[in-house]
Amino acid sequence: xxxxxxxxxxxxxxxxxxxxxxxxxxxxxxxxxxxxxxxxxxxxxxxxxxxxxxxxxxxxxxxxxxxxxxxxxxxxxxxxxxxxxxxxxxxxxxxxxxxxxxxxxxxxxxxxxxxxxxxxxxxxxxxxxxxxxxxxxxxxxxxxxxxxxxxxxxxxxxxxxxxxxxxxxxxxxxxxxxxxxxxxxxxxxxxxxxxxxxxxxxxxxxxxxxxxxxxxxxxxxxxxxxxxxxxxxxxxxxxxxxxxxxxxxxxxxxxxxxxxxxxxxxxxxxxxxxxxxxxxx
Length: 281
Ligand code: BYC
Prior knowledge:
Mean pLDDT: 88
Structural class: mainly alpha
Strand order of the largest sheet: 1-2
Bound molecules: benzoyl coenzyme A
Largest sheet: 2 strands, antiparallel
Low-confidence stretches: 59-63, 275-281
Radius of gyration: 23 Å
């Protein structure tokens, strides 16, 4: 049997990517590919945990919720706008990730997109109802749209020329479109929805560009994005403090579960214990 060398493994990996096949957890992969996947999946998982907090703010007053991270939820209309815009942006970003080169992530994303799609429709429906309501309800929907429009555009990440990870992630098939391409797709998809709802998107430069076949839109405040990502957004400190408190408050549950597991292990009848060999089987 011949030894498989690192260049062989790299060549096999490159061929898998070039044939648009999936990389699986036990496959050889370059350290930098593994690092990128861990970074991106961690960010995603972290978003799901923190993302429930803004709408959790409204949970005692309404039964439906989805999420967003470091911006406050000031009125109930925010629940609708987060569903419509935030989950809409998440879907736009994540549908192409269903074809990500990393198999487990791509497969998980199919289920995640179905769930996000439900939130998006629920938010849109909620806003449609509010926009058929009183003047005060319409004002609430417009105010929530004003506050969440720009942060939603920021969700796609920095512009392509300031995105350090896009080029390599595109080569690896982790990302299928650049941040700017997806941001544009989201704008093009959302403007007609805003028209139908009867809300105005807070961008005076937003207009159809016949030559490009896309909507032009005004500049995103990247200084604000950087501040939020650096931990200085309106609710960063609050979100992390709440998350930490929930983790600390749950310490007794983890301790009890571990103690229970240890007790069961010590008292388990011999025949039901797994040997190390069985564990590996
Ligand atoms: N927020 O080189 P870039 C959701 C960071 S929605 C914070 O373009 P990449 C949900 C980026 O991590 C959100 N940080 O990076 C909705 C990198 O920093 P590091 C979760 C951001 O990875 C409702 C740096 O900026 N979804 O799911 O190629 C309810 C340079 O950026 C952001 C996902 O995460 C941001 N918006 O592209 C519940 C989807 N944007 O790590 C949940 C998966 C950029 O080098 N993720 N950064 O220190 C992705 O598709 C990509 O990671 C991104 C960024 C498009 C977000």
